[in-house]
Amino acid sequence: MNYLLNISPIVASMLVVLLPFVAFIIQAILGKKSTSGIFSLVAILLSTILSGVFVFAEVWNGKPLHADYTWFTIGEKTFNIGILLNNMTVLMQFIVCIIALPVHIYSKSYLKGDSGLHRYWMYLSLFCFAMLGLTISKNLLVMYIFWELVGFASYLLIGFWFTKESAVQANKKAFLINRIGDLGFLIGLAILFSTFGTLDLVEIVGKDGLFFQSIIDINSGLITAAGICFFLGAMAKSAQFPLHLWLPDAMEGPTSVSSLIHAATMVAAGVFLLSSIFPLFNGTVLLIIAIIGTITAITSAFFAVAQYDIKKVLAFSTISQLGYMMVAVGIGAWDAAMFHLATHAFFKCLLFLSAGAVIHEMAHLKAHTNLDFDPQDLRNMGGLRQYMPKTFVMMAIASLALAGFPLTSGFLSKDAIVISAFEWAIQQGGLTIVIPIVLVIVSILTAFYIGRLIFKAFFGTLRFDVGDKVHLHEAPKTMLIPMAFLAVCSLFIVFSWNPFSYANAAILNGLVVNYTFPEIHALHTIIPIVLTATALISWVIGYSWYVKGKYPLNANSSWIDFAQNQFDMNEWMMRAFVNPTFKIGKISFWFDKYIVDGIVNGSAYITRQVSALITWIDKYIVDGIVNGVASLAYELGNALRTFQNGRLQSYLGLTMTVVLIGIIYLILK
Amino acid sequence: MGLLSLLIFLPLLATALILLLPATMRQSYKYIALGITVVQFALSGWLYSQFDNAASGINQINGFQFVEQLPWIRLDLGSLGQLEIDYFLGVDGVSLPLLVLSAFVMLMAIGASWNVTKSTKGYFSLLMLLNMAVMGIFCALDFFLFYIFYEVMLLPLYFLIGIWGGVNREYAAIKFFIYTLFGSVFMLLIIVGLYFSVINPETGANTFNMLHMMNPNNYVDGSFFAYLNNYYEVLGIPARMLGFIVLFIAFAIKIPIVPLHTWLPDAHVEAPTPVSIILAGILLKIGGYGIIRVCLSIFPDAAVDANWWLGLIGVISILYGALNALAQKDLKRLIAYSSVSHMGFVLLGVASLTAEGISGALFQMLSHGFLSAALFFLVGVIYDRVHDRNIYNFRGLATHMPAYTGFVAVAFFASLGLPGFSAFIGEAFVIIGTFNAESVGTGVSRWMAIAGSVGILLSASYLLWTLQRMFFGQTRFKGGEDWATLLTDVSARERTILFPTLTLALLLGIMPSLVFDKMNATVLNLVSLVTQYL
Q: Do B324 and A149 touch (CB under 8 A)?
């Protein structure tokens, strides 16, 4: 027993990763025989306990640990499967566990009765295995493997309802766009490998890593290229503009999946990756990261405002918030990025779970009343506050956190990013000031669209007249309890005892980052006040527009349509990349069929024609000469035969003729 | 008789038995073939386990294992000296894994032939003859012997495609035959040239021994292929480069490279499923093997000059094959083009001349060996049932044949390089090795690695698109209800073949050391042999 309690963090963290994998295997073997998900649940529960008690509690603010196990040798280079436990990795692993657990519990009710439930649990465990493995990988090649595996699990889960055309289109799109990023990651690995001869994180960017032994010039083109390649990987995974297109479509999966994978954990992997290899980035790359992050944040905030599908609003909101995290990485405050990642994981997961509860009830309503409407469309909701008060309260808490309202966790992390961005921009000078200003605008938009969502769904009255027998009621306990847990985690107290300053946040203090810019104290007071005030104003406007019905704009305006369709980016991408690729494929097949194979068949044809010609020559010329000689001899003999007829008269006549000819010849001569 | 001889000639025993048994016992033919191949597989597995990982192979006879060397043909040619042909066999880290692969793929092919009814006597005896030839190719170390096995291989394949194939089988068979012969005839010229240039240092006689051909000291001064002071040129091409190019073309047809690939889609589409399995699983590997064993090792000085072009051809094959696959409507043709694309990685990796790249290429050969075999087998599953392979005639197979879809999905994801499966290790290290080549200075450019990686993206596109088109969505078949009854899920026999194959792909993806450990010493020796001419 004592031995069991003395389990080392390394072993514990391995168990954390492997338990879901075991559940995956068991579920795969049992197949349809087990749909309760008990294996997945137990596995993730044990993982969470192990991760919390034996890994996080042991390693956090302690000594970083790492271990290596030889994997294989290729040529002279040996690759290890390594485990790296430091503040960041154990934090990430714990976040994944603590989010995955409530989602597992929630799923039990949410997907009850689905015919593919056994697959759901299997895929979910596979995802947990891959995601947890990703967090503690020390070797970048191993991290890449898990990186792609989470993409694969996400593919499976987006396409969970595989008979639905839109779902299978979406999962293909998700996988392919992620593949683009994966190629960036892979090329990045190749650059690091050819520069350092290893892919071990500690050996490269560790304290005494090769990177700091001034072997290479950080501003060299190759290192810039490596940075951009890794960022490309992160862009796809973390849905950064313009590779974000897969994420809104990914909402075709079950809502529980959206909450875990496409909001809280997997999409944050890009931010996590960039934080892990942060020293690799030079000023150029960092600036690119910050700019892309800003563009992502503002565009998707705009898109979110115009969406009617409740999940799409949240999806764009996720993209926008990931843009925030990217900006944080870009300005060098990656600890703030990780902090926002942590807080966002909880409140965004809760937002999705609440949305799931709402959709669940709307779908019930649809089934009971035989009305035909889209249960995810905000325009069909309204007044749900009366029927689902608990869901409303929890979703409101999550929304406040998203908007960065004081007393919530989002307030702390968002302020950390915005204030750091201002400090960075002031130090950098020039046009960089645009970045923090855009972030403020995004913050206002965020408050507005999440307010719009709440007002439209929960305020006012239900759009349908369903009479007395309203089939709307509160979600079951197995869904509410996980949501309640997440709601608590969306409050400031989980992250910092001080609700008004992020300076005391444990995560920020745990991740030591040397900022390149000085602190400006005034900003720490002004920014939170501005952000809170603007959020309040936007809610007042939203309330009068959506609840009071004083909507001043034309709902059908082309601008709103345009924003709703993401500025037609999907169509544009189709025209720019997908269709040309098909076209090139068709052309190259034509080329193959008619040119390459044409040459082959043509030379065969020519060979046949030449041989036909030779046959002809053989038959009529060569053989013709042979036969000609033969027939000449024959004809000659035949002709001469007539002279040899045995008649004396003709012999004499012949002699006379010859003599006559001779005489004529002599005369004429 | 040595173990390798046993391994090679066991199938001949099967051929003899099958030919001798009367037609009334035709049911036993497949069991004979299966039994012999199982023994062969076990034997090759035993060789694999007994192989000394430190053996460096390539150009040192003591680096080879299980060597058998017997004088075979000795003929006094008067002024031309003594003709010296040996029966010379041996394996190193390059050939050994391919031997095991061949035995494994052959097992799959026999499993896939279970329901063949058309003159089984001829079928199985030809199959076993083919089995003998491919084993011989991977073991032979005497160029003459190698050539004999190489030519013997053509004969059974010609008949297997030409008799048991599809509608257009004769065209495909002739095309395949002529293509390969085109390469090998010129190869014969080079072999003769090498023979007259190389001398066995022990006997002083000219020799066909490949290992002697790899040692510059054995070349006669002033001979056609001499290393030093060689001023021979043909059409302005130096003699040694010419030798390299001709041998390369002979093997490149087998790989196949673009633009010498057009026999492949036709042969695959017309060939019966088991022959497709052998073609993709073994035959294409002979091309890659030949380039490593012959082109690179005998002409390393030419190889370092030509490798940029080899890399370029590899990249073109990768992209061109993938783009063509994207345009296919016939599932089998799609897989055939994907083979062109995946085998392009082999050429690219070999061209990189780095340990990572060449190991990756060898690994890719193995991985492609059983993955493409599995893919062709999977195509065969639906073709057997409804005699149709058009992608657009099927929809929503996932609901109708869930187990089959499971196998297809695993095979597809394994082929598109999902980590955890073998193809990932192969492709990733080809990319990494190629990228590294510029740092090592072997002359292959970095952009080739990037272009190659685009091929990985394209392979994901066509495979996922196919998955979406054929397997997902609402069930709908062109043949309607008839097809629905015909399309039964995979049978026990099919499971028994597919499961080990895909498990192997997974196993090698997770534990690549199973293969890398065997080949590392050999690959390093090869790299040092070649890179000394850089």
A: no
